[in-house]
Target: Right-handed parallel beta-helix repeat-containing protein
Amino acid sequence: MKHSHLLQFGLFALAITVLAHCKTPEPEPDRVVQREDTLSIVSLRSLNSNQIPSSVRITDAGHEGTFRLSEADFSSPDNTGLVLVTFNGHRYIREFSGPASVTWFGVSTSDTDIGPELEMAIKATDNLVIPDGQYTQLTEVHLRSNMTIQANAGKVLITLPQSYISFVNDPNPDIHLDHILIDGLSWNVTSRQNGRYGTIYIDGPSVTDFTVQNCTSTDVAAKDSTNWLTLKIQAGKTASGIVVRNNNVQAKRMACEIFNHDNYNSYAGKTITVSGNNFHDCHFGLSLSGPLSGLTVNNNYIKNCSLFGIEIAGAAQNVTITNNKFEGVFDKFLEGSNDGDGNGSIVGGMVITGNTTVGVCQGGVQLHNGGATQFSKNVFKMTGMLELLHSTAGGTFSENVIESAANKAVICDNTPNNTFTNNTISNKSSTENQATFMAYGSGATNTVLTNNKLIKGSGGKSYDAVLGASCRASMNYDEAGNPIP
Model:
């Protein structure tokens, strides 16, 4: 071999040897050190040391807390509130008990829009609390199943200057909403947007075990609000276990509307309770409409609703309306319908008992398709009358005080087989009395009027049956206790 070739080969071998000795060593694996470091969120996220503390204490205002390293977690996203991820991909998980504070996720009173942070918080954990303060929300937040969001009642105010909607369902109608509690929040809607909206707006999914309580809301400064709470049951969907209680709401259209209009002849909404609320200065205080079953409307205070105070509309079944109070100005402060088919086939009928007016209400009461209504111990002082219409048939009306300024205090309009006993019925203040009690039309047969105090206005009669109606009257008496023939 020539010397030049030997030299080249030697140099090549030398180069291989040198390169082998210069190979970059493997990085030292990260090592968990059993200690707790005090860091900011920024410092933790930028951490790339191979000595990893087993826990860290975060010091950022509103985010304070202890986070512990999860060595088995390689996928949880950084959500600021419960999970923080380092530069090297290590996950630290917040240690806490009880509800999570939304401030951990970046919600603050100085935030121009708490919507994105609140949505992130809802996705991250099942139980959230909003600390006392005033907040601004511009973007909608999507509810999900198995969640609670709460606040100290009257201590948290969310202003909605852009959208009427604070909480809404996922746009995919196949995603159910189950086991949800909204408790103690307050809203001030100042949006100038046009459209059909509601502060809590559910339109599409099936819903079970859904409660809204101890909340307040007003949209007096808004332009075109719809409702405070809207729950629409879409075709093929259901709703059950709905509770709306102890809320104080003013809404330009309806404080609370729950309706089933797209499931014809199917009672897709069941077990709905609306109780202890103060609904005021709306077009409708409360509307439950369509084929619904098991409705309880109890102990609400309804004031100044230009159309209806409480409306039960459509084909409702098993309706109980008890111990509600009405005050102020209405068209009808109580509008009731138990069987929307108009055939009176529903067994039982509405139970309406213990309800009162505060002072004299402007407006009256209409019962459409009430079935065999059980109407007792109500005290209604009003400018309008009690009207029984359509299939409000076979009902019992007992121990009520009905005082009206209309030319008829009570009229059975083509409704048969209703019995009135032990009531005080008056239209004494009417200057054009037709009849304090009237059965009207050929459908108003077998009306029974017995042992009632009938106090009539000027002119007219204490009771009458006209245009084919019939009325069996006995043992009724006037204001002085004198028998009425």
